[in-house]
Amino acid sequence: MFIMIFDYLRYNNTGVFALPSKRENFGSRLGFVMATVGSAVGLGNVWRFPTVVAENGGGAFVLLYLAMILLIGLPTMIAELTLGRAGSRNIVGVFKNLSPRRQKWWLIGLLPLLATFMVLSFYAVVAGWSILYVASSLLGITAGLSAEGLEELFASLSGSYLYPFMGQIFFIAVTVGIVVVGVRKGIERWVKVLMPGIFILLLVLFVRTLFLDGALEGLVWFFRPDFGGLSVNTALQAVGQVFFSFSLGMGAIITYGSYLARDADIPLNSLYISAADLGVAILSGLIVIPTLFAFGISPQTGPGLIFITLPAIFNTLPWSALWTVIFFTLLTFAALTSAVSLLEVMVAYLIEERNWPRAFSAAGAGFIVFIASIPAALSQGPVKSLRLAGLDFFSFLDFTASNILLPLGGLLIIIFIGWVWGTARAGAEISSGGSPFRWFLPWSVLVRIVVPLAIAYILVSGLFF
Ligand code: TRP
């Protein structure tokens, strides 16, 4: 407590700690928020959130998710952006720049580099499916199919030895292309169109869902908490989902923070980004869950869930093929802006710490991701026996990265900010832009005590008990 008050006093008396930044900045304030929203909003919201809500029993999980956002997600988002802007470097360089001399905190940075590969390799599989759905709806294959027909379609597309790989390669190649062009030129421009587009389309879907027979039951299931089913494992799933959806725990947000302009208001931006991310997730849940009930689809369907439910709703609308094409095109773009932020973590590291040229770094990292994504795709399709630690390979990557590596990375980053670099410096960095940081005290209590204890407790008990 004393340390915190001391920090607070120090913080109020300090000037700017940060290094002047000569890196590429985002062109406008809106551009930065949009790009970061572009990183946060992706398959995590539209694909992963409804799937974990369905698997974890609905309402109680949703509440737990909200609590984890307030308790862990938002404070960590502020912390990562601040660290990134102050350090002005990639994930490893940030720690080298900001840690006391001769301490090896930069080793923390290696964990996220591993997580990047794991996340990207199953992310590319799902994005590849999304591309396959663009193609199939263009060819008129999805139109008119019943829910069972759509289940069969998903099984046959994902079960093929050819199609998933075509989707993946295409997706990874475009991601690499954007990263080569550079973060700012590559994404800032079109995220501004993309995000509103996807939001509007989700709203249309939501309204249509409300009128489906049986949808009401699903809405109730989504909102009514049944705390009986909660366990520490559910809490671990909720924390994993927060980290995944907010792009936290592995340096993506740190890397984006390093491109943030000096006078940007970090807490306010964090609030916007979190609200947008949460909004898209909730909206997707409100579409997918009632649809499950209306069409009698099992909540335990797994990763293919949205590829069955969403076309099923489109098929109840006139011009269903058109809607399906537009939707999966937008989803693919949303996945792209997220994948770019994942790959950029690797690439910024290779460029700044290893002096590799940008194009070479991006292509090399993309190639390794593609190799890792092959077994992930096979385990969801033709080679279901590809299993590790009791999970199929795809789920193994997802579980290990989202529920272990990201929270662990987040824990180390938060400890670094709270106790090594210090919340006083963080506070000075935040207010150096001109607007005072009004929530400094509650934020530092969260960052130094609540967040680390909560993550450590949930990780240990969720994994071992
Ligand atoms: N947040 C993105 C999504 O919801 C995925 C993502 C992008 C991510 N960057 C990340 C996840 C960094 C973890 C870490 O789809």
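^ tryptophan complex. Residues 25-224+231-423+439-464 form a domain with the Hydantoin permease fold (CATH 1.10.4160). Residues 393-431 form the longest helix (39 residues).
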